[in-house]
Predict the structure of Cytidylate kinase.
Amino acid sequence: MIPVITVDGPSGTGKGTLTALLGERLGWHCLDSGALYRVLGLAADRAGVDLEDAEGLAALAAGLELRFVERRVLLAGEDVSDLIRTEQAGMAASRAAAHGPVRTALLEWQRRMAREPGLVADGRDMGTVVFPQAPLKVFLDASPEVRAERRYKQLKEKGLDASLPDLIVDIRERDQRDRNRAVAPLRPATDAVTLDSTAMSIQEVLDRVLEEVRRVF
Ligand code: C5P
């Protein structure tokens, strides 16, 4: 079986950075599953599909022409990497992701990303739904304030507009929806290693996870 490491948790905990670093260290593929839902939000906006229209969104999801090329996200050949990184896109993704049919439509696509020599997959339900057999599951958490600050820095570095108080409100709203939705709610798998990164640097988190990698693989 192809080895998989899952990294789940709310936004701003450092999941994406940890996943990229692990992928580099191990020479494994990476899956940023949040990008799928973000692209779907963008595609829905362009196609005029309402974010409450579960069946319309699922049909759109099933036909998404999506590719990841060297950390860039291509939708039907167009580089949409920057367009999908705004807070607005995150919120649209979270609304689209709450529908069961949408998640089902994207399930096999995500599973096909598990290829030799291995995969590090980040998201909300990687360990609970998409790769329940993964031998190593990490759940990263951190306080909403610290996560909002990290997000603020990221957005500023990209030259995007951001307000810290607005980000705290957005993060709480997104958490609330992701944790309380009926399908694939955000929660740690029962066999996940949970880490609180509030007071940890990314290097400390990476070192801690690499210890687990050595133990498990
Ligand atoms: O991780 P990211 O912030 O890019 O994800 C955007 C949104 O996509 C999340 O708030 C969540 O609602 C949704 N998502 C999900 N399942 C995943 C990854 C992301 O529901 N595996």
User: Anything to note?
Assistant: The CA atoms of residues 35 and 197 lie 22 Å apart. The longest strand covers residues 136-141.
